[in-house]
Design goal:
There is one protein chain. Helices cover 64% and strands 10% of the residues. By secondary structure, the chain is mainly α. It has a two-stranded antiparallel sheet with strand order 1-2. It is globular, with a radius of gyration of 17 Å.
């Protein structure tokens, strides 16, 4: 029981830390970009964009659907952790909390602003402008896939 409680606390602490870090840093970056901060080189640029869709501008202007989808995804991720509490590793909990916080960060912006604030642009390749939440989502998904693949090879 004690081990399970520590896993739940770990999930919540990581989730809250990642979510508030995302929201705080995003606010600072958007404020600085709007105040004239400019970075533009051969690799990276700050380019503030209001994104009403999902990744790669898919589902543009589908705010309500994306809000519902995000809520369902977060609930399912947390339910998965609770259902598999005994067997789930702390690494998996860490990356599920990172993934969930990324989804929640974009969810927060969709609810509060009506769009997601994107601001990182890779200038060496044709790639959509993205934000901190997107980084969290991608790291979380990639790490969880790696953990699943490593587990299957054992």
């Amino acid at each position: 029981m004690h081990r399970n409680l520590s896993k739940i606390i770990y999930l919540i602490v990581c989730f809250v830390f990642f979510l508030f870090s995302d929201l705080y840093l995003s606010d600072i970056l958007v404020r600085e970009i709007n105040s004239g901060l400019s970075i533009n080189n051969q690799v990276f640029a700050l380019n503030y964009v209001k994104n009403t869709g999902a990744a790669f501008s898919l589902l543009r202007d589908s705010r309500e659907f994306l809000i519902i989808l995000s809520c369902v995804a977060i609930v399912l991720l947390f339910l998965y952790v609770f259902k598999h509490l005994k067997a789930i590793s702390m690494k998996s909990i860490f990356f599920i909390s990172l993934l969930s916080a990324g989804i929640a960060g974009n969810l927060h912006e969709r609810i509060v602003f009506g769009y997601v604030r994107d601001f990182f642009e890779l200038t060496f390749v044709n790639f959509p402008v993205f934000n901190i939440s997107d980084i969290f989502i991608n790291i979380g998904v990639i790490a969880l896939i790696i953990l699943i693949l490593l587990k299957k090879t054992r």
